[in-house]
Amino acid sequence: MNNPILSVDTLQRHEKGGEGAVADEAPKSPAGISGKSLALVSGAFFLVYLLLSARRHAANLTTGYDLGIFTQIVRSYAELSAPYSHLKGPDYNTLGDHFHPILALLAPVYRVFPSSYTLLVCQAALVAFSIVPLMKWAGEVRGRKFAYWVGISYGASWGIAALIFFDFHEVAFAVPLLSLSLCAAGRGNWRTAALWSLPLVLVKEDLGLTVAAIGVYVAWKGPR
Questions:
Q1: C-alpha dihedral sign at 134, 137, 142, 145
Q2: By the 8 A CB rule, do 171 and 203 touch?
Q3: Distance between terminal CA atoms of the chain?
Q4: Tell me: the pLDDT tens digits for 50-101?
Q5: How far apart are CA 115 and CA 143, in angstroms?
Q6: Residue ranges covered by each domain of the chain
């Protein structure tokens, strides 16, 4: 005997063991964002950062403090010597002023392209790359449109703009490291978050406090 209360759709779902109902009710995960989109946004900001920095340098708006000092430091590393800066003083070892041995990573590039522009290019690349982890995480959580919003608003934020307009500074290395560490923490990848934060102690001496803060957060939120 036919039951008028049951619809055809209901009968079909019962025949499939209720799988259709479960599938319909399951929340859809965000589609995320493609690598092409990540490269597009990051690459666009890289060009903007580089253009602004290069134009300032070409217009003689950069100074010895700090672009000149850091150029001398990286040149010293490229020559396989201690990081001296004669702008700070005769045979002045800058590690006695600030602890930033991570600058040695720029030495191979500077050896091939010995110019202050090399530092500006590297800074633009470091800051632009920091957009990628944030956009990727945002895409995983809220979808492609939200990822674009996060990437563009972050890339054009005042703090990032202030860094780009301040010649060159070693804290440019901290930007992608913090981005990678905090995004890993947001996903609950506590070990990865801790590992990405550790190199911050090589960027500048006071960033040890930032590493400690991340460590406290990981210990608080991470697995016991």
A1: positive
A2: yes
A3: 59
A4: 999 999 999 999 988 889 999 999 999 999 999 999 998 888 999 989 999 9
A5: 41
A6: 31-221
Kindly state the average pLDDT of the residues 217-224: 88
Structural tokens at position 165: 């307009």
Q: Is 46 exposed, middle or buried (0-12, 13-18, 19+ CB in 10 A)?
A: buried
In angstroms, the CA 6 to CA 89 distance is: 89
Beta strands in the chain (DSSP E): none
Q: Are 127 and 172 in contact (CB under 8 A)?
A: yes
Residues 170 and 100: beta-carbon distance below 8 Å: yes
What pLDDT is attached to residue 153?
97
Amino acid making up residue 203: V
- pLDDT band (50, 70, 90) for residue 29: low
Q: Which two tokens stand for residue 8?
A: 């055809």
Query: Whose structure tokens read 């449109």?
Result: 145
Number of Cβ within a 10 Å radius of residue 221: 11
CA distance 116 to 127: 17
Could you tell me the two tokens for 55?
A: 């134009």
DSSP state of 202: G
How many whole angstroms separate alpha carbon 118 and alpha carbon 128? 15
Alpha-helical segments (H) within 59-130: 69-78, 107-112, 116-129
The helix/strand count (H/E) of the chain reads as 12, 0
Burial of 168-194, coded b for 16+ CB within 10 Å and e otherwise, reads: bbbbbbbbbbbbbbbbbbeeebbeebb
